[in-house]
Amino acid sequence: MPGILEKIAAIEKEMAHTQKNKATTTHLGSLKAKLCALRRELLEPSKSGGGKQPGFEVQRYGDSRVALIGFPSVGKSSLLSALTGVESEVAAYEFTTLTCIPGVINHNDCKIQLLDLPGIIMGAAQGRGRGRQVIATARSSDMILMVLDATKDDQQRLFLTKELEDVGIRLNKARPKISVTRTKAGGFKFNATVPLTELNRDMCLHILSHQYKIHNVDVRVDEDCSVDDFIDVLEEMGTAPRKYCKCLYLYNKIDMLSIEQVDELARQPHSMVISVHKKLNLDGLVERMWQELDLRRIYTKKKGMFPDFADPLVITPQRGDKTCTVENAVGMLHKTLLDEFKSALVWGSSVKASPQVCGLKHELADEDVMQMQKLTQAERARKMHGKKTGTTLAGSNTQVDPKKVKEKAPLKT
Questions:
Q1: Separation CA 179–CA 218 (nearest Å)
Q2: How far are the Cα atoms of 34, 176, 186, 228, 238 from residue 207, in angstroms, in the given order?
C-alpha cells in the first residue's frame, strides 16, 4: 500500500500531465478534491498525537500578533532584535533559531506581538524541519511577514506561498462568496448570480457526490470563483478550516542591490524593502504594518468628564466577529453591559455630527470617542417583559386583550 506522500505525489504528477480544457475540467476538479483530502489526512495525526511541541507554546499577548516566515538566514532574528529589542541568537550559519521567540512592538499606544519562527525548508507542510509547528503558530497570527532575500530570485516567494497554501493558509485573499447549505431532502440545487468562467453545475455536483458524499445540498455562488475556492468552502464545513490572512512580502538586504532593482521590488503589490544591517526603512515597515493590521483605537468617556486618552480600547479586525462596531467595543468593556445598553454618543470621523447617537451596529473609526448610555430602570423592565399592549384589570397586573373585551361586551338594547 502506498503511503500518503506517495499518493499526493502521484496525484500531483497526474494533474501536471493532464491537458487543461473544457473536457478535463471535471476530472481536474475531482483530483484537486482528492489532493485536499490527502493533505488533511496527513496533518490530522499532528493534532492528536505527541502532545504540544516545547518552545512553540507562546501565549497571545497585545492587540495583534505578527509572525515572521521565511527561509533560514534571511534576517528574521536580526529584524526581531531591531524592532523589539529582544535579543534573539544571530549567526552566519543556518537554523540559528530552533524555537519560537516573541517580542513586542509598541506603536501608537498599541502592542503588536512579533514572533520569530524557525526557517522553513522543503516539505514543511509534511512536517520536515518542525514545519508543522511553525505553520501552526503562523495560523494563530493576525498577519504574516514573509521575509525574503532580495539578492535571490522570486522562487523563494512562490515556494513559501505554496507551503502555506498546502496547509490551508490563504494569503491576501478574502473568503469566496459561496454558500453551501446541507438539506435533509431535495437533492442537489445550484444557483449562480454571476457568470462563471471556471466553476459550473456539473463540476460542483461531481465533487460533492463523489468526494464528499453529499447529495442533498443547496449551493449558491455570488462571484466568479475557481474550483479551489469551492473546495475551500467545503473543507470549512469539516475539520479543516481555512485561514484568510494578510501577508506583507518583506525584501531584506536591499543594501546589496542597485537603486533600479530596489525600486522594482518596492513597486510590487503587498511588498516592502528594508535592510536590517543598515537600518534602512524600519520605521516605514512599522507604519506599514499598522496600516495593514487596521487597528482601531476607541477612547471611552464618562458623562460630564473628559475622554480617557491614556488607555484606549483597541479593536483588531482579524479577531472575534471581525467587526469594528459599537457592539464589539461595548463587549470588550464587559459583556454584561450589552444587556444595559441603550445607545452610544460618538465623536470622531465615523459620524457626520459630533456627538451623534448611534446603535450597536454603527462602525467605529480609529480614534473615535464613545460614551455609553444605559437603560433606565423603567426601560429595563419594559425590555425584559416586552411591549405591553391592551389594558389591565383594575387592581391587578393581569393583561386583557382589547379585542376580546369588545367581543364580550353585552349588546345594548
A1: 8
A2: 9, 17, 18, 11, 15
SS3 219: strand
Phi, psi (5° rounding) for residue 372? -90, 135
- Shared domain for 128 and 193, answered yes or no, is no
Nearest C-alpha neighbor of 220 from the set 236, 207, 233: 233
What burial class does residue 265 get, using C-beta atoms within 10 Å of its C-beta: 0-12 exposed, 13-18 middle, 19+ buried?
A: middle
Give the amino acid at 55.
G
Both 253 and 130 in a single domain?
yes
C-alpha–C-alpha distance, residues 206 and 213, integer Å = 10
pLDDT in tens, 241-283: 788 999 999 999 999 999 999 999 999 999 999 999 999 999 9
Query: Does some domain include residue 312?
Result: yes
Place of cell 444595559: 340
Pairing state between β 313-315 and 110-116: unpaired
| Domain end call among 292, 324, 359 | 292
Asked if 57 contacts 136 with a C-beta cutoff of 8 angstroms, the reply is: no
- 280: which DSSP letter? B
Q: Residue 192 — φ and ψ, nearest 5°?
A: -115, 125
Residue 305 pLDDT > 70: yes
Output the CA angle 387-393-395, nearest 5 degrees: 110
Rounded Cα distance between 112 and 84, Å, is 10
pLDDT tens per residue, range 131-161: 566 777 788 899 999 999 999 988 889 988 9
Buried b (16+ CB within 10 A) or exposed e, 172-196: eeeebebebeeeeeeebebebeeeb
Q: Are 245 and 143 in contact (CB under 8 A)?
A: yes
213: CB partners within 8 A, 6+ apart: none
Q: Which domain holds residue 315?
A: 296-380
Q: Is the pTM of this model over 0.90?
A: no
Angle 4-17/25-43 helices, nearest 10 degrees? Answer: 160
